[in-house]
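Technical annex B. To support the medicinal chemistry partners, we prepared a structural model of the target in complex with SP5, based solely on the information shown next.
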Amino acid sequence: MVVDPRCRDHDPGAEIWIGVTTPGTEVAERVTTIESALRGLGHDVVPAREFDDAWLTRVHSAELLDHLATVWERWVAAGYPDLGAERVVPYLFSSAELRHGLPPRMPTALHAQVGTYCYDTMTLIGPGSWRAIRAATHVARTAVDLIASGTPSAYALTRPPGHHATRSAYGGSCYLNNAAIAAQALRDAEYAKVAVIDIDAHHGNGTQAIFYQRPDVFTASVHVDPGAGWFPHHVGFADETGRDAGLGTNLNLPLAPGSGDEVWLSAIERAADAAADFDATALVIPLGVDAAIDDPESPLQVTIEGYRRAGETLGALGLPTVVVQEGGYHLPTLGQLVGTTLDGLGARTTRQREPPGR
Ligand code: SP5
Ligand code: ZN
């Protein structure tokens, strides 16, 4: 398990959904409880290393990186907290219709700039957010380093989560795409073909978007059907299969609300078969445990045994594997769900073996 205490420094403070401000579900206690559960199960703990942030432009735009790194300080300097705005939050979005085909222009007002990068009202930024966002990328990259030096599998305890972040935009409680960063870092470590199998309850739209035209990274996502009314609503449908050189390298498996273990596991088996057909040489698993029965954010009704079997199915691929933490919001069962999935996967230690071929 790779950790960084700075992942707790992000306090979104709230979520705003249909105009209603709630305390929010993506809280620091999530990683506290997962870390203590995994320690209790005998997982070893590896502190994240430091990395050069300039590399992140391989996955995200320089503009998004600069926005995230600086927006809190600029928000304070401009006096927004004095107006009662204690977090950075958009009020206006840069929609294609608003611009009616004109090229995007950067608004002068900071409170309008935010809507160029942020696509919802659920993903707020506060004083410690950038420290945590950045640390989570280091956690993911450290897990890749462990794999590249011969560890069969490594779990990255990332927070905030990442799979809803696209190259240039953030949302869905995600800021930078830790799983996409892991996949790109594996490519840079000479793993020729990387498969991403996202089992968070929500579609991994950011990861899909980042690799949509890429033939070297296969992305699959098993999630509650956006067509049944679930986030991210606009994307995550079965007919999205990739574009240009990436045609055929994206697989969406949207599931009906209430699907339960057997349907969910069949979809994960389909994704695993597709990753094998792709001849993947390394695997990234964006692991959200929000498909679980008790989770407040999805209706998929998966049991803890279902999560163990998901781990077994993906472990049977026999690939060097980086597991990246995504969602999961029911604090009492969070640690057990992650621990059981990793057990199924056979990922308890970072003990090394001879590096496998790439
Ligand atoms: C990483 C991840 O799991 N992100 C989840 C993003 C989905 N959020 C959509 C929230 C929809 C409204 N839920 C009601 C919450 C009221 N507090
Ligand atoms: Zn989710």
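Notes passed to the chemistry partners:
Residues 16 and 66 are 24 Å apart (CA to CA).
DSSP finds ten helices and ten strands in the chain.
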